[in-house]
Amino acid sequence: MALAKIDPIYCDYNATAPLRPQSKDAMVMAMEIGANPSSVHRLGRSARSCLEEAREIVASAIGACREDLTFTSGGTEANAAILNGVRLQEPLLMPIVCGFEHDAVLAQLPDAISAQVTSDGQIDLVWLEDLLKNWPHEGRSPFLSLMLANNETGVIQPVEAAANLIHAADGLIHCDAVQGLGKMPVSVLDGELDYVTLSGHKVGGPAGIGAFYIRAGAPFKATLLGGGQEMGLRSGTQNLIGAAGFGAAVDAALNEEAKLVTLASKRDNMEARLKSVANVTVFGENVPRLPNTSCVSVEGLRAETQVMAMDLEGVAVSSGSACSSGKVKQSHVLASMGVPDELALGAIRFSFGWATIDEDFERASDAWIRAAQRKGVISNTLNKENA
Ligand code: PLP
Questions:
Q1: Aminotransferase class V domain spans which residues (predicted)?
Q2: 201 lies in a domain?
């Protein structure tokens, strides 16, 4: 007898969210324009108005003006443009960064002061306040890069409070809001952020499009030079199709408040269920987290084993650790929180989103429980019940 085909379920939205139908439709329309937004003829003007419409949507989603938003090829480029462009203009800035930031930030700031991180995965504001009060870098202003929400744990950072501290010390703040957009309110007005990074594919738009916001008057020097597009801040012919898809995805995401509440409550139920059957740690559970993310671990169950076992059952999740050159590397995010290696090596991330349905949570946790049972990390009572 042939086995019934099971629909795969996708629990990896923080890696890339599936393309939203609204985004696909907007991209098809933009493709049909087939012109360069810098051209002055009618088709060029039509491409320009499509681009500016998308810019307006993305900018207003973060409480910004259209003129302050620049499109890029993604979050990585936006982070690099800001972190290098600000320091090119103001070489005396002294960067501060937390170990849990995305590599796209860490790689740009090898000389930064490493900020203290709490065991819940947030920047330690008491430490920051103290550092700024006793600032050891005479003549150099602080430049903090602090993400809005972490891609692995979903932990939300106290960005507004950090911005207030940094501004009081005459410094500047950049916020990588790639994971926050569409999953929580994002506003440049919270603490008057100086720079913000965004990306299209985490919100249900296409990959290969992103943006940066610069507060009017904040220091910046363009690093990608050429034809002077994007008001000279980022040269290169704009990715009109990507921008249209990004705008449509953001527009759709802004109407999903009720969905986010449901995701949070289903996620909480799923975590409670996993904890009831095994000695599961939920990273960041004591502080505010994105509603869609759950990063869990249990000692004795390696992340690769769980990811593969769940994949065989059609459940797509990510491991918190990264595999490179055949070796499993501990997650730098969990390391920054002081999580011991044995626990960190078992960390997997479930992340849900716009197309998730209620039963996905049950199927994902069923698959995890079966994998854990096979490895003998499930509590004895449950094993007896299932014997
Ligand atoms: N910043 C964060 C927090 C991310 O999660 C990611 C993607 O994983 C990036 C930046 C990079 O964005 P992109 O994939 O658009 O280059």
A1: 9-362
A2: yes
- Provide the 10 A C-beta neighbour count for residue 367: 21
Report the run of H or E that residue 315 belongs to, with start and end. Answer: strand 315-316
pLDDT of 4 strictly over 90: no
**Cβ neighbours of residue 386 under 8 Å, at least 6 residues apart?**
373
Residue 267's H or E segment, with its range, is helix 257-277
Single-letter code of the amino acid located at 321? S
In a domain, 14, yes or no: no
Question: Is position 241 within any domain?
Answer: yes
Catalytic residue among 11, 65, 98, 323: 323
Are residues 373 and 380 in contact, defined by beta-carbon separation less than 8 angstroms? no
Please give the full DSSP string across 171-233, using - where no structure is assigned: -EEEEE-TTTBTTB---TTTTT-SEEEEESTTTTS-SS-EEEEE-TT-----SS-SS-TGGGT
Ligand 1 center to 384 CA (angstroms): 44
- Find residue 181's DSSP bridge partners: 184
| 53 CA to centre of ligand 1 in angstroms | 24
Domain end among 194, 222, 253: 253
3-class state of residue 3 by DSSP: coil
pLDDT at position 384 over 50 = no
Taking the CA of residue 77 as reference, the ligand 1 atom at the shortest distance is: 16
pLDDT digits (tens, 9 = 90+) for 78-94: 999 999 999 999 999 99
| 317 lies in the same domain as 239 | no
* Residues 171, 72 share a domain: yes
DSSP lists the bridge partners of residue 196 as 175, 213
For the chain, the domain total comes to: 2
CATH code for position 91? 3.40.640.10
What would the mean pLDDT of 186-208 be, rounded to a whole number? 95
Residue ranges making up the domain that contains 122: 21-253
Task: Judge if 264 and 248 occupy the same domain.
Answer: no
Establish whether 323 is a catalytic residue: yes
